[in-house]
Amino acid sequence: EASQEIFRIASMAPGALLLEAQKEYEKESQKADEYLREIREQQLLPEAVGQCIEAAGYEHEPDTQKSLLRAASFGKCFLDKFPPEGFVRMCQDLRVLNAIRDYQIGIPLTFTQYKQLTIEVLLDRLVLRRLYPLAIRVCEFLRLPEIQGVSRILAHWACYKVQQKDKSDEEVAQAINQKLGDTAGISYSDIATRADDCGRAELAIKLLEYEPRSGEQVPLLLKMKRSKLALGKAIESGDTDLGEGTAGMGGSSGGFWGLGEHPGNALRSGGAPWECFGGVPLPPNIWEFPQFCRHQERETLKDLYNQDDNHQELGNLHVQAG
User: What pLDDT is stored for residue 238 in this prediction?
Assistant: First the structure.
């Protein structure tokens, strides 16, 4: 409707008059003042500016878009309180639309389609076509939050990268880390899961090295049946609950602990608790997990205190038992 009002033959709509006023102003003609006075006398200048902004969105030719936006900008100069947000947003939307309408991209969306789809869906379409650089530039231009924009796109790119068979695991892992770094919202464990699903277990392990959260590393390592590595990561994290869960999920092949004989048996035979896990070094207080030792393995805890000559804690255990 805005386009019809402005471009209809012999139209006297406020938007049409404002467009003519701007063109005459560029020619340095006094007619610009006549057109502008006519609009202002009817108090239709805000409507004229709004019409020009709206019509620009429905035009596909950049020259016509610019002409309408110049007219809107010209009219705004004579208004005291005109909110600039609509004008700025339209300029941004048109830059995005013109970029994706380029013949090399080939997504000729109309302004109405673009608004109905939302920017998130448009970004998904660019990602599915593997147009990652353009998608990232759009996110940066629109200043979208990292988690919604750049981080999500980089994660998609990394998941696609791990499927490339022509490069070694080391090269792919380094390329992904170099591009992603410590970007907020990126989960290396998700990318590693995709690599494992593609049959690249070694690449998945290399990617997990970049994952800062042990809670994300351990479940995937256990799924990949890398129990010793999972236990090592759990112990490095210092999270006793995570370490306890890892020890308990090791499988049934090596007793309840899955990775060696029961710790209590090792202690009673004069061994050290860290010898129970196939050479994985454990801290001395590894068996002091509150949920496990105090509720399920009190005898193991007594043996540990007895071996360490920790008479105070051993006495406390006996008092509690009594």
Answer: 56
Angle, helices 111-128/150-161, rounded to nearest 10 degrees: 40
* CB burial of residue 230 (10 Å; 0-12, 13-18, 19+): buried
Q: How far is CA 163 from CA 24, 147, 153, 263, 310, in A?
A: 59, 23, 16, 42, 54
**pLDDT in the model for residue 250:** 45
Helix (H, G, I), strand (E, B) or coil at 279: coil
Alpha helices in 9-131 (DSSP H): 14-26, 31-41, 45-57, 62-76, 85-101, 111-128
Q: What is the pTM of this model?
A: 0.63
Beta bridge partners of 253: 255
Count Cα atoms within 13 angstroms, Cβ side, for 320: 11
| Domain chopping of the chain, boundaries | 1-117
Helix locations, 166-308, DSSP H: 169-180, 188-197, 201-208, 214-223, 227-237, 240-248, 263-268, 290-293, 298-307
Q: 313, exposed or middle or buried, with CB in 10 Å at 0-12, 13-18, 19+?
A: middle
| Cβ(90)–Cβ(69) below 8 Å | yes
Segments of the chain with pLDDT less than 50? 247-263, 266-268, 272-278, 285, 287-291
Helix (H) or strand (E) holding 295: none
Of the CA atoms within 13 Å of residue 299, those in its CB half-sphere come to: 7
User: What does the pLDDT read at residue 139?
Assistant: 92
Instruction: With residue 132 as reference, give the H or E element that holds it.
Output: helix 132-142
Cβ contact 52:6 at 8 Å: yes
> Tokens 């690249």 — which residue?
200
Helix (H, G, I), strand (E, B) or coil at 291: helix
**Contact of 262 with 311, CB cutoff 8 Å:** no
In which residue are the tokens 């938007």 written?
15
